[in-house]
């Protein structure tokens, strides 16, 4: 069942090309238009949505953060993302024009379920992005968009995360299509790029040795920081969470722009800092800003380990190690940049002799509040 891998986590990391591919499968008609019939929510109703609130916990919430950047950009519908357990207790503003998008691998996370129930009581429409057929959250939601990652056994979420992000992109593009927000050609170009992602993930997997070697060399690190901007920010948070969960190392993910507002005080000689570098072809001056962030931490003695787009040689001179990932559209980058961070955490934890499938104190599905 582990397909020859030592652990489920390794297997699931390696399942990711298929998880993304299967989540994309069958969701367009012959003319390339997105069809999400399974949503069970009326197209007219979806057209009237004035606000989206994404609710989730843990890794699923980071998928939700990525969703926010993409859905807002493509649909111009305001999107909030909130941890499900915080949402319910803050008297949120919801009505029948609010679409609640829950994200959950298991479909049984109690915090998320309770938040969805609460939103329903307040009159919101609810849509579940979920990996488990027939589980409670999709059963109790008005609509469902299943991720097809297959069963995820390891406690740390990997392939479900990439599948959740993929599903969120499909939802965003579908809403843009419904509302006439984007040209069909534009949507098709993004879909074509999404279909190229599985092959690109495979390239990263085929070159995993460099990451594993670094992980082994860093097994004794007491603390590791992760920086990112834009969609690289949730990727940084996810990289940090994987390292905490699996290797019990103190790790934090920051928005790189926040550095000088406090976290830079943590930097001292030898501090490892992972930096998720946006594409140099991206919008605005994001790439340049992140390169300056790298220089800032380096000037204070940090070891910068960068995840950058293939061909982006500008970061090499400032990095102790660079992991190159294939190029794609800036918004789709999390589907690639996350993979080295997962491999890193898994390899480092294995090096320390920890049980990567069943880390201490954690349950696969948190069914209590
Ligand atoms: O089943 P869910 O997606 O609702 O689970 C949410 C979180 O509990 C889960 O992602 C958790 O953070 C993982 N252990 C992360 O690896």
UniProtKB/TrEMBL annotation:
- EC class name: transferase
Q: Name one GO biological process term.
A: carbohydrate metabolic process
MF terms from GO for this chain are: carbohydrate derivative binding; glutamine-fructose-6-phosphate transaminase (isomerizing) activity
Example GO CC term: the record gives:
cytosol
- The region annotated as signal peptide is none
Instruction: Indicate whether Transferase appears among the record's keywords.
Output: yes
- Reported EC number(s) for this entry are 2.6.1.16
> What residues does the SIS domain cover?
42-181, 214-359
Active-site residues (renumbered): 364
Q: Which domain of life is it from?
A: Bacteria
**Compartments (UniProt record):** Cytoplasm
Q: Which reaction does it catalyse?
A: D-fructose 6-phosphate + L-glutamine = D-glucosamine 6-phosphate + L-glutamate
User: Keywords, A to Z?
Assistant: Aminotransferase, Cytoplasm, Glutamine amidotransferase, Repeat, Transferase
Principal subcellular localization: cytoplasm
Its job: Catalyzes the first step in hexosamine metabolism, converting fructose-6P into glucosamine-6P using glutamine as a nitrogen source.
Subunit (UniProt): Homodimer.
This protein is called Glutamine--fructose-6-phosphate aminotransferase [isomerizing]
Q: What is the lineage of its organism?
A: Bacteria, Bacillati, Actinomycetota, Actinomycetes, Micrococcales
UniProt lists the gene as: glmS
Q: Which residues of the full protein are shown?
A: 253 to 621 of 621
């Amino acid at each position: 069942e582990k397909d020859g891998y030592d652990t489920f986590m390794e297997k699931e990391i390696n399942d990711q090309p298929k998880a993304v591919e299967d989540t994309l499968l069958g969701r367009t008609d012959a003319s390339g238009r997105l069809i999400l019939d399974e949503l069970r929510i009326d197209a007219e109703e979806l057209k009237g949505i004035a606000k989206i609130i994404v609710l989730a916990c843990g890794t699923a919430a980071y998928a939700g953060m990525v969703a926010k950047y993409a859905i807002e950009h493509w649909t111009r519908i305001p999107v909030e993302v909130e941890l499900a357990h915080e949402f319910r207790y803050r008297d949120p503003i919801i009505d029948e024009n609010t679409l609640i998008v829950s994200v959950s691998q298991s479909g049984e996370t109690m915090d998320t379920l309770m938040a969805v129930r609460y939103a329903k009581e307040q009159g919101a429409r609810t849509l579940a992005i979920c990996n488990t057929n027939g589980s409670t959250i999709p059963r109790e939601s008005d609509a469902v968009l299943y991720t097809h990652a297959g069963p995820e056994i390891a406690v740390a979420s990997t392939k479900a995360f990439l599948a959740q992000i993929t599903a969120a992109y499909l939802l965003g593009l579908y809403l843009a299509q419904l509302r006439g927000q984007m040209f069909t050609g534009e949507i098709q170009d993004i879909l074509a790029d999404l279909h190229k992602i599985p092959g690109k993930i495979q390239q990263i997997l085929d070159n995993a040795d460099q990451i594993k070697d670094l992980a082994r060399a860093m097994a004794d690190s007491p603390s590791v920081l992760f920086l990112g901007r834009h969609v690289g920010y949730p990727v940084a948070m996810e990289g940090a969470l994987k390292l905490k969960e699996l290797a019990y190392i103190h790790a934090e993910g920051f928005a790189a722009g926040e550095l000088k507002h406090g976290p830079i005080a943590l930097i001292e000689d030898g501090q490892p800092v992972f930096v998720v570098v946006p594409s140099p072809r991206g919008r605005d001056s994001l790439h340049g800003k992140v390169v300056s962030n790298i220089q800032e931490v380096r000037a204070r003695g940090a070891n910068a380990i960068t995840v950058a787009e293939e061909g982006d040689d500008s970061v090499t001179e400032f990095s102790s190690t660079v992991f190159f990932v294939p190029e794609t559209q800036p918004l789709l980058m999390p589907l690639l940049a996350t993979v080295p961070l997962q491999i890193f955490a898994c390899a480092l934890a294995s090096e320390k002799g920890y049980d990567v499938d069943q880390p201490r104190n954690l349950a696969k599905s948190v069914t209590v509040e």
